Amino acid sequence: MPPLRLFTGKDRVAVLLPLALDGPLDYLVPQGAVLGLGDFVEVPLGRRQVVGVVWGEGSGGVAAKKLRTLVRRLDIPALPDPLRRLISWISAYTMTPEGLVLKLATAVPASLESARPGRSSFALVPERPENLKITPTRRKVLEAALTPMPLADLARAAGVAPAVVKGLIDAGALKPCPAVPAALPWPDWRRPGPQLSPDQAKAAGALNDAVGNGFSVHLLDGVTGSGKTEVYFEAIARTLSMGRQVLVLLPEISLSAQWLTRFADRFGTPPLEWHSDLGLVRRRANWLAVAEGWGGVVVGARSALFLPFANLGLIVVDEEHDASFKQEEGVIYNARDMAVVRARLSAIPAVLASATPSLESRANAEAGRYRLLKLESRHGRAVLPEIELVDLRRHQTSRRSWLSEPLVEAVEASLAAGEQAMLFLNRRGYAPLTLCRACGHRLQCPNCTAWLVEHRLTGRLECHHCGYRTALPKACPSCDAEDSFTACGPGVERLAEEAAARFPQARLAVMSSDTLTGPQAASKLVESMVNREIDLLVGTQVVAKGHHFPFLTLVGVVDADLGLAGGDLRAAERTFQMLSQVAGRAGRAEHPGRVLLQTYQPGHTVMQALASGDVERFYAEETAERRDAGMPPFGRLAALIVSAPDAYAADSVAEALARTAPRGEGIEILGPAPAPLAILRGRHRRRFLLKTGRGIAPQGVLRAWLDSCPVPSKIHLQIDIDPYAFF
Predict the structure, then answer these.
(1) Collapsing DSSP states into helix, strand and coil, what is residue 643?
(2) What does the alpha-carbon distance between residue 287 and residue 396 come to, in Å, rounded to a whole number?
(3) CA–CA dist 311, 239 (Å, integer)
(4) In terms of Cα–Cα distance, which of 654, 641, 685, 688 is closest to 668?
(5) Does 182 have pLDDT greater than 60?
(6) Which of 9-18, 505-514, 565-574, 606-615 has the weakest average pLDDT?
(7) Distance from C-alpha of 306 to C-alpha of 270, rounded to nearest angstrom
(8) pLDDT tens per residue across span 460-498
(9) C-alpha distances out from residue 706 to 305, 467, 635, 658, Å
(10) Is 647 found in the same domain as 612?
């Protein structure tokens, strides 16, 4: 731990603000104040006051008489040293202003504002001040203040004007205090877990040995249903026994009701949660619990990586392959990779768990940078499902139907046996395209080069890229023909419509991000499946997020080829991962499972690997292709996207950048070219792709390139180091 650095009155300190600034600004410490590194402070900036973080000693670049004095220190825990170093590391790696990365760690205004005058909660002081004049209105406030409340709420509860409350604060009869809900108890690590299999016990032992012994990364590679969660629960228990905190990252925390239940059963209390659906009061409470060290385990989405843990001892990234861990806007980062960086900076172990690990993680394990822990069989008496390919060239579907006869027969057989079935189609809405039968006009988003998707449940056409919504027009805007629009292709809503007609006796439910309005809705639907209140589940990728349905024995994938289209270098890997995860929902208990994949490409490497169960062959072939092409993880990629309000401006800047593009051994520039989404949210986009050898850092190449070609302020440059999406 670095030595404590204190700053006192008239010292010059550097304060980093959560704004698009490349570095901190200098301020003077007020007389009588004592500040430390990481302290939250309020500083003047122009005509406003902003909350920032003490980042270090002032630079001395500005004369002291020109500096402004910071206002005050906030009475909340300081930002820990490992988190400050992580912020600086991510800023340098992603080429993002340091202040914007800090914003990710200070994204809970209520947590910081609790110390602001007028925004704190107030409660009675232990002893009433002498000479305090008690009026009837003041008495009402003092009675109401038995429960801490913010000033405005206290005034409302007492039925008085806010000035009455402020008068009591000024008189010293009320004191500020954080209004924090009751803390969750420390998880009980002594509670016994289930009996582990020999493979599970071996993996758990390796993780337990790593806890408390510095930095290490473990790749927990286990087939679906092998009990990976119970294995890393053992490491969580070991960490808690040392009085240290744990962070668990999940790709879709709002859909993880079963995980939360399993945790509570194992440790006697739920974990702290961190995701966008939490209310402000709970977010403030959880933030403070983490910062003060009495929050034992946090489970959250990628933003939880930036919580100010007081004593972090272990990081777990579950479903580490999931693309949801990649932040695609603002600060562009991969939470899985940054979790490993935070573990290294904190000198603690990290666990990456998945049934279908990313090629990057597998390569790190093969190179010895990660330790590989394998679970090759399902837990207990459950066995992996049988996977069959349905060749749609032989089993053609009828017009306006997307279910082949083999799949229909399999669903009917499962339903007749009193078992549950699932139909999977990774496409939201009713239909991906709507066109005019009279002239062929296609309804397109006015802001993006994307078709509008019909959502019949809401009666709207939607753009899945910018969020634009509109009603279906009565007449074609191209030829004025009325009632001429027709839906083309299936979405999950249309598939559910066909399934309801085909299997009228089945109790059917749809599971997609459009139908799940929040964690409670997701939890209720999962509970209905477990309680066998649903016979047939129709869903998108959210059905593959680790759910355990004991009586689900059949999974039918309606369009297994869907993810193979396009120029994404990870298309085959992602499709394999998605279909493996979906298939893994079948036969997870005592009833054997069966999976049918409808495909026009039964000979594709992905389909053959799934049908044969030869996972290693697929990864070997995919690895060889990437290595031969010098693509990640055997080379480096960085995307540079130029966007402008009009096409001419975007083309002009892209051409100027092309003329100054770097040259050299191990450096290749692809582009400029229109991005696949050439217009997004009304801005025209041109894309470069920088490809370098593994030993060449793309950041340095990009910095030199951009320094040689200044870009007008109206042009936006987006840099994506290690791109995952190619839209």
Answers:
(1) strand
(2) 55
(3) 11
(4) 688
(5) no
(6) 565-574
(7) 21
(8) 999 999 999 999 999 999 999 998 999 998 999 999 999
(9) 30, 32, 22, 11
(10) no
For 135-157, write each residue's pLDDT tens digit. 888 888 887 776 667 777 678 77
The residue from 354, 375, 396 where one domain ends is 375
The rounded distance, in Å, linking the Cα atoms of 346 and 215 is: 8
Instruction: Report d(CA 190, CA 172) in Å as an integer.
Output: 46
Instruction: Quote the CA–CA distance of 564 and 600 in Å, as a whole number.
Output: 11
Q: How far apart are CA 587 and CA 378, in angstroms?
A: 10
Please spell the DSSP secondary structure of 599-642, one letter per residue.
ES-TTSHHHHHHHHT-HHHHHHHHHHHHHHHT-TTSEEEEEEEE
Residues 6 or more apart whose Cβ sits within 8 Å of residue 125:
172, 173, 174, 175
On whether both 653 and 619 belong to a single domain, the answer is no
Amino acid letter at 526? V
Identity at 649, one-letter amino acid code: A
| Helix (H/G/I), strand (E/B), else coil: 387 | strand
Q: Looking at the structure, do residues 221 and 360 belong to the same domain, yes or no? A: yes
What amino acid occupies position 200? Q
Beta pairing class for 297-300 and 245-249: parallel
What's the predicted TM-score (pTM) here? 0.87
The domain boundary residue, chosen from 80, 100, 129 = 80
Tokens 């594709």: give the residue.
604
Q: Is 320 in the same domain as 297?
A: yes
In terms of domains, do 173 and 137 share one? yes
* CATH number of domain containing 331: 3.40.50.300
- Alpha-carbon distance of 296 to 184, in angstroms, equals 9
pLDDT tens, position by position, 501-554: 999 999 999 998 888 777 777 888 888 988 999 999 999 988 877 777 888 999
What is the 8-class DSSP label of residue 395?
S
Residue with tokens 């139907």: 401
What is the helix, strand, coil percentage profile of the chain, to 5? Answer: 35, 25, 45
Residues 222 and 367 in one domain: yes
**How far is the CA of 485 from the CAs of 452, 454, 469, 479, 488, in angstroms?**
13, 11, 17, 11, 10
- State the Cα–Cα distance between residues 122 and 719, nearest whole angstrom: 46
The CA distance from 678 to 534, in Å, is 42
DSSP string, 7-23: EETT-EEEEE-SSS-SS
Q: What is the DSSP string of 432-483?
A: SEEEETTT--B-B-SSSSSBPEEETTTTEEE-TTT--EEPPPSB-TTT--BS
For residues 269 and 187, the answer to whether their CB atoms sit within 8 Å is yes
Q: Is 553 helix (H, G, I), strand (E, B) or coil?
A: strand
Torsion of CA 54, 60, 61, 62, to 10 degrees: 90
Task: Please give the residue range of the domain that contains residue 419.
Answer: 386-427+492-626
Q: Token pair for residue 32?
A: 């009588």
Whether residue 658 lies inside any domain: the answer is yes
What is the secondary structure of 117-180 as a DSSP string?
Answer: TTTSEEEE-SSPPTTPPP-HHHHHHHHHTTS-EEHHHHHHHHTS-HHHHHHHHHTTSEEEE---
Sole residue written with tokens 């300081």: 78
Same domain membership, residue 311 and residue 286? yes
Domains of the chain: total: 6
d(CA 133, CA 412): 80
135 and 203 in a single domain? The answer is no
Domain assignment present for 187: no
- Write the burial class of residue 678 (CB in 10 Å: 0-12 exposed, 13-18 middle, 19+ buried): middle
In a domain, 114, yes or no: no
| Residue 49: inside a domain | yes
